[in-house]
Amino acid sequence: MVMTPALAETLAMVSEAASCARNPWWIIGSAAVVLHGRSIDQVKDVDLVMSAPDGEEFLKRVGERPQSGKPNDRFRSLVFGTWTKPPIPVEVMAGFSVATPDGWRDVALSTREEVTVQGQRVYVPSVDELIRLLRTFGRAKDHSRADLLQD
């Protein structure tokens, strides 16, 4: 697995901070691609998807507050915040939805694979589900990440 020390430390910190979550949670985006063993030029942030109650509790636990503001035209979360203490910022997306041609769709992941990083467990969707999710996001960078997973 190609992983920088900063990403490994960040993921271990996420695992520890999310250990009290009542519902399943996942790492998605570029960090998930790396956790599936692919190489990415740079992981600029770690995307953590969790339930809204768990997201609120997570942010409180790490000393951050949910951010207020309007969702963008592609993504929205019931609870959103950024944890800035880890080496790589962690974006908490709780109650996460994505805009599709048919309207807003809740991101409801059904697969959950465990990966151990620095002795801590983190969770990612299966490769197939992550590919579908990235393609749903529709951005060029997400399509590129999905292509990496298909190789």
From TrEMBL:
Domain of life from the UniProt record: Bacteria
Record-given protein name: Nucleotidyltransferase family protein
